[in-house]
Amino acid sequence: MQNWYEQTRAKTEDIFQSIISHNFVTELTQATLDKDTFGFYVNQDSLYLSEYKKALVTVGSKCHRPEDTQFFYESATGIIQVEDALHKQFLEEKYSHPEPSPTCELYNSYLSRIVNNESVEVGAAAVLPCFTIYKEVGDFILKTQTNKDSNPYQAWIDTYASDEFEEAVKQAIDIVNTYALTASPASLGKMEEVFIKTSKLEWMFWDSAHKQEAWNI
Q1: Three-state secondary-structure class, residue 89
Q2: Is the full-model pTM beyond 0.90?
């Protein structure tokens, strides 16, 4: 299998279209997204990323090649630096809350279970959509928006449409493609399953932020 990512990504096109047509992304692009909604999102994002960093380290610890381990470790460190800067810019004290939303909890729990209990190729496939979808969304917004000089969320947009993030995404894809070359049929099936599921969870995360999802009981 020469390009596992391209083949599997094609199967999630409907999910991606649902993401870029979601009100959260549309309003973010048009700079009409409610400030409280974005504040809720940034808080949940910080809670998600605090666990996602651990998932990256776990995947890295299972890698067969030192350079792959280094990539995942450096990605975890990069999240600390880049995302913390964004959160300091956008996360006002009034939005900061320690409790993950149900969707945030679900996403974190699912990733933790997969990266800790499955093979390295399956774990790498599970963490990949957080790289690829954010890059595609950032590129889409940058390409379609007409308010680059006045959008209050431009720093967020620019981060995920940046050349630096693009290079990280390419490396993550290359690593997953490489492991897919020697994966068993059963592992390939599991890789596809978790990639599709975490892609759905990306949509759910933005949807939950737009709703400012809370525990109902």
Answers
A1: helix
A2: yes
